[in-house]
Every structure is written in C-alpha cells, then in structure tokens.
Design goal:
The chain has about 325 residues and is of the alpha/beta class. Helix content is about 40%, strand content about 15%. The chain starts with a helix and ends in a 15-residue tail after the last strand.
Length: about 325
C-alpha cells in the first residue's frame, strides 16, 4: 500500500479509501491510485479488510446434498442472486440431517468466515431449539418447517398439489392416485396432504399412497403397480423424475398416456417438455426462491428483523400427458 501511495503521489490513507470503495475520493485521484495498483500488481487483501470491517461478503449454504432437482436448482438460484449482490457462496453438503452434522457444518462455516447461512433442509427440520448457532450468523431456511425461529422461504407446495389434482378431476377422472416422495421430506408431506385434502373436498375416494424416493426407478416400480390397477385413470407424481419412471412403466405394460391414464408431475424440470408424451407438471419458480433467500439474508445483515414464511406461487403447465377421462376406455 505504501508503494502504491508513493507511485500515485497520495497518502496511504487515500489508497485505503480507494480500496474500500469510498465514494468521497475525487475521481482523478481514484484513477491515479487504480493505475498505480495495476502497474505494481497490487490487490487489496479481502480477508484482512473483512476482519477489519467485521463482514466477509460471503453466504454459507448447508444442504442435504446435490442429488435432488429442487436442491440443485435452489442452490443455483441462491448463488446467482448472491453474486449479483456482491456476495460469494460457500457450500457445505451433508450426507445425513443429524444434529451433529448440522452443528458441525455451522462450526465449519464459522471458521470459513461467512456473514449468513441458508439452510436447504428438504427433510423435516431437526429440533431447531436444540441447535447451537454462532451468535453473529444470520440464518434463512428453505423448504422446511422451521417456522418461529428462522425466516423461511419455500414454494407453495400445497397450492401446486391442489392445482394438479383439480386439473385431473376437471378432466372427469373419478379420483387421482399419488406417487409420493420420501416420507421424511417436508415437500413430499405437504404435497401428499394437499392431494388428499383436494380429493376429500370433492367427495372422491382416496387411493392408497404409493411411496417413491424421487428417482425415476422408484416411479417405474410404482408405475408397474398402477398398471395393474384397472380403475387407475389419473396419477399425480410428486416430482417429474418419478413421473418419468411412471411413463416408462405404463408404456412397458401397454397402458397409453394420456388415452388410458393421465399423468401430472411436479417441478417442471427443463426435460419435462421432451418426455413422451410431454409432461403436464407444476412449475416451481426456483429463481424467485433463491432471490427471496438472498433478499432475506441482506435484510437481516442490515439489521432488520425478518420472520415468518414467504411462499412462492406455483403454476400448472399443461402439456400432452393429460386428457379427458374415458378416452381409452380404461376404468369403465
């Protein structure tokens, strides 16, 4: 810094102000300092500046892993929004949602120096009251039931599931079968609850739930069972990957979609429009979820008290995997 000051003909304090982005520095002076930095190959030490200021301009993200579409797309959205706000993202994936793992992740993020943490917890959150968190770190939770202690951002799971069921019932199907996600998943639970509630509200029979694990393989296994159910004419799968496996199973058993069975998924992954047939599905706005997470973080860092749940609306995308009941004669 002293070398830069000497080369630019200014004080070290002026160099420091330029490094810190002080808007009060005259533009001509700022340019002389920047030119001197470039000539000398000087770069401000961001770690030292962070320690001095008490802020690191970094957001930690703790997630259950990178295998599910929701987690990956949410993480991507958070990273993009954080970058636009001038923040870096440090990722800590967990292999299991235990108290010790979550505490260890917070400890590691504290050592790595982050200003805030976003928890992407697909499973029902651990007892939040039992978690010991670094006192200076702000927390925002995605896709969980951690209401009360932390601000929560989530897709409106119930709205999306109800839209899927009502769409199928509106096509004349007597009821809707459901392939649910993992039993411990918060999102899967909300979607299954809304599916059942929508059927009961319309006075429809509630078929037994088939349980998958979000993968196409589990959707395929469920599809083989549904292919043997002659009264099954409509299925709501809790995500698009399981819907993909379902489509293949029905095809392998000679059951036509949508003539014999209509299928609706959830997520609207980019590939869903290329399924055979193109999949009717519930669109999640992951970009908005990510933007709201970063916005909540920045508001907390600014000293604002952020509480409650922000739900991002879903939309039903109608494609060719659904049709009016009775088109193929199945279920009669």
């Amino acid at each position: 810094m002293a070398d830069v000051a000497q080369r630019a003909g200014v004080s070290s304090q002026t160099v420091s102000r330029v490094s810190n982005g002080d808007a009060a520095v005259v533009e001509a002076t700022r340019q002389k300092v920047l030119d001197a930095m470039k000539e000398l190959g000087y770069r401000p030490n961001s770690a030292a500046r962070a320690l001095k200021r008490g802020e690191f301009r970094a957001i930690g993200v703790i997630t259950m892993g990178l295998t599910s579409t929701g987690n990956v797309r949410t993480l991507d959205a958070i990273a993009g929004s954080a970058s636009r706000a001038g923040y870096a993202v440090t990722l800590i994936p967990l292999d299991a949602p235990t108290q010790d793992n979550v505490k260890g992740a917070f400890t590691r993020l504290d050592e790595l120096a982050v200003d805030a943490v976003v928890l992407i917890m697909e499973v029902h959150l651990l007892d939040a009251a039992a978690l010991t968190l670094p006192p200076h770190v702000k927390v925002v939770v995605v896709d969980s039931d951690a209401t009360g202690r932390f601000p929560v951002v989530d897709t409106d799971q119930r709205q999306g599931a109800r839209a899927a069921v009502r769409h199928l019932l509106g096509l004349g199907h007597g009821t809707v079968w459901h392939i649910a996600g993992l039993e411990e998943s918060f999102a899967a639970g909300r979607r299954a609850e809304a599916w059942e509630a929508a059927l009961r509200e319309e006075g429809c029979a509630v078929p037994p739930v088939l349980r998958g694990d979000w993968t196409p393989e589990s959707g395929y296994e469920a599809g083989l069972r549904l292919a043997d159910e002659p009264d099954c004419t409509a299925v709501f799968a809790a995500n698009d990957q399981m819907a993909l496996g379902l489509l293949r199973a029905l095809h392998d058993r000679g059951v036509r979609v949508p003539e014999d069975v209509s299928v609706v998924g959830f997520d609207d992954i980019p590939e869903s429009a290329s399924f055979i047939p193109p999949l009717t599905t519930v669109h999640q706005d992951f970009a908005q979820v990510g933007a709201l997470c970063v916005d909540a973080v920045l508001r907390e860092l600014a000293g604002e008290t952020v509480t409650g749940v922000q739900l991002v609306p879903t939309t039903l995308v109608e494609r060719s995997s659904t049709a009016p009941a009775g088109a193929g004669g199945r279920g009669r």
